[in-house]
Design a protein that fits this description.
mainly alpha; Arc Repressor Mutant, subunit A
Amino acid sequence: MLSSPARSVGTLYRGFQAAANQGYAARGWTGVTLSHVQFLSELEAEGTRLSDVAAALKTTKQYAGKLARDVASKRLATLGADPLDARAVLAKPTERGRVFLQDACEVRAELESALLGRLSPSRAAAFLAALDDLVAATHTLE
């Protein structure tokens, strides 16, 4: 048992991240991580500005740009100038990126089911309710 809820959440997240990466690899997706999934999850089919991706991920534009280049190098998205503002960069998911994201969503669902399956139905429901409350409460911490 960990002594701190924050440490427990961190440990749970790192374990989930490692299991997700293994799940992607088991489906033939090598060199991709949960960070790539999070990036792709923010993309609209017609393209999304990197500044909007950064805001959605609550990260810097520089880090979003790094992730964008990495995702593009894996052929999961394309990068190009925004036709409305040539200074802005748009990221668009490729068909390969959409297939990977679908696989990643299936991996996530399998992992969530496996984790929650270790709890009784009432404890799983209580955990999910508490998790929703804590996520909502994080907005008051900012």
